[in-house]
Specification:
single chain; 260 residues; mainly alpha; 14 helices
């Protein structure tokens, strides 16, 4: 694609090449982010953004920005995640599409972690309204906003809103939907469950669930995002509990090399 894109082509072909570049660069960036390579992921997301802008297609521009919002969310730059998500929603111009649903979900999740509960709930409602109107088949195709993806975002959002009962219902449904998946998403949902347990005062249970989740994972899934989310759990535990046996055991699991 890169060699083709550097040549001179009619406008329609040039736009299509830009669209393909944006999509492939986004997929590469997503993979690098999940592997715990944020700097490389950032570079590929930047490439995707440039290509999407060159395409002139507002929905592709929105999709790339909504996908890119995952990187600052998982690696601690929450206000940037909100900015990207809102920019993506502006680009969709009120159209009902996966990009609009994903962008609203990304905004809701980041705002929840920032403690902006009312704004997070509003974004969550927008996401649900768009999702309920999506005419796209609910299949796992690259950038489609499926029910499983919705449940993943709901789990994270409700966990950080402190709505542990609602989160628990979502997480139970999500894990049923993901029962045939060995990817990273069900792992992140279980870590959300662990945070909910800790938030409800069940500190040992939360730590034990997180440790069991880490220790049961396939080597290729013990990546940077998983370790970062586990560290998030430890960070919400009370200071007085930080030296408990459960936390020590969890930290030992966290320190193990992938697949150990």
């Amino acid at each position: 694609i890169q060699s083709l894109a550097t040549g001179h082509h009619p406008a329609a072909i040039a736009r299509r090449l830009s669209e393909l570049t944006a999509n492939y660069a986004t997929l590469i960036a997503d993979a690098l982010m999940k592997l715990g390579e944020p700097r490389s992921a950032h570079a590929w997301y930047a490439t995707a953004t440039i290509a999407a802008d060159d395409s002139g297609d507002s929905l592709i521009r929105a999709q790339v920005r909504a996908q890119t919002a995952m990187l600052p969310y998982y690696y601690g730059h929450l206000t940037e995640a909100v900015r990207l998500a809102r920019e993506a929603q502006m680009l969709t111009r009120g159209r009902i599409c996966s990009a609009a649903a994903l962008a609203a979900a990304a905004e809701a999740r980041a705002l929840a972690r920032l403690g902006q509960a009312a704004e997070s709930e509003a974004a969550l409602r927008r996401c649900q309204e768009v999702f309920d109107q999506l005419a796209e088949p609910d299949e796992e195709i690259a950038f489609r906003f499926t029910e499983r993806r919705l449940l993943l975002y709901l789990s994270g959002t409700l966990t950080y809103l402190g709505a542990t009962r609602r989160a628990g219902d979502v997480q139970a449904t999500a894990l049923l939907r993901y029962r045939d998946s060995d990817g990273i998403d069900p792992v992140l949902i279980r870590l959300d469950q662990a945070i909910c347990l800790a938030s409800d005062g069940k500190l040992d249970d939360g730590c034990q669930l997180a440790a069991a989740t880490l220790n049961s994972m396939a080597p290729q899934h013990r990546t940077g995002i998983v370790l970062t989310r586990t560290a998030d759990l430890i960070a919400v535990l009370p200071e007085s509990y930080q030296h408990s046996r459960s936390v020590r055991s969890l930290k030992e699991s966290l320190a193990l090399p992938p697949g150990s």
